[in-house]
Design goal:
12 helices, eight-stranded parallel β-barrel, alpha/beta, binds 1,3-dihydroxyacetonephosphate, TIM Barrel, 15% strand
């Protein structure tokens, strides 16, 4: 059975002290009221080592929001997958639309990052999703398929099993505009069918596919009730313990 996951993506928010406070608060809240799903928080690099010490990793997984496309060496300012892993983190988000758009990360660069993350024992939350113009042109299926083919369909079935997919329509990120649960289910089911065509039905059935884009406690229950939506990747609503816990509780 595939995992149900609620993952937070803090993006470039929270200084170190604020981040530790949020992680500590969430850890306490989930110790008092055990979640019914896997919970992951993905934080800026500088938070990882400290946050790793304050959370119970059997309840909250820890992830980075990015890693380098090079193994090590003279790449000033970069953080390698090995460094991420050494903090105690278990996950890394790759392919987020903000990285693709603002930092020009291409499918080839992302392919390298995915390989390095897996080689260093990290699980990858791989993001895919179309822009508003692509949705209006009814190209969303084409776009998500190409994103999978471009960066993760080179993997063996065993390695693909370490990938969590996050479908995040760009037009729904931070806009308050959520895909309807029907729209999300339609494309999640399509994504699963593309994975089945490539790796077979069993692998596809075991792949967790998360929805991201203005997901909050009020709309999470309807989204998570759909058969192909296995949880969420949460931006804004992961920055307050009560908001994030509200989404986690949607699995109850
Ligand atoms: P919001 O939840 O703020 O829309 O962000 C979604 C996202 O990009 C998570 O990676």
């Amino acid at each position: 059975m595939r995992k149900k996951i609620v993952a937070g993506n803090w993006k470039m928010n929270k200084n170190l002290q604020e981040g530790i406070a949020l992680a500590t608060e969430l850890n306490e809240a989930l110790a008092a009221d055990k979640p019914n799903c896997d919970v992951v928080i993905c934080t800026p690099f500088i938070h990882l080592a400290k946050v790793s010490e304050v959370i119970d990793h059997s309840v909250i997984g820890l992830g980075a929001e990015n890693c380098a496309d090079k193994e090590k060496g003279a790449y000033t300012g970069e953080v390698s997958a090995e460094m991420v892993k050494s903090t105690g983190a278990e996950y890394v988000i790759l392919g987020h639309s903000e990285r693709r758009e603002y930092y020009k990360e291409t499918p080839e660069i992302l392919k390298e990052k995915v390989l390095l993350a897996l080689a260093n024992g990290l699980k990858v939350i791989f993001c895919i999703g179309e822009s508003l113009a692509e949705r209006e042109a009814n190209k969303q299926n084409e776009v998500v398929k190409a994103e999978l083919e471009g960066s993760v369909f080179n993997l063996s079935a065993e390695d693909f099993g370490k990938i969590v997919i996050a479908y995040e329509p760009i037009w729904a990120i931070g806009t308050g505009k959520t895909a309807t649960s029907e729209q999300a289910e339609e494309i999640h089911s399509y994504i699963r069918s593309v994975i089945a065509d490539k790796y077979g039905k069993e692998v596809a059935e075991n792949t967790s596919i998360l929805y991201g884009g203005s997901c909050k406690a009020s709309n999470a229950p309807e989204l998570f009730a759909k058969p192909d939506i296995d949880g969420g990747l949460i931006g804004g609503a992961s920055l307050k313990c009560a908001d994030f816990k509200g989404i986690i509780d949607a699995w109850k």
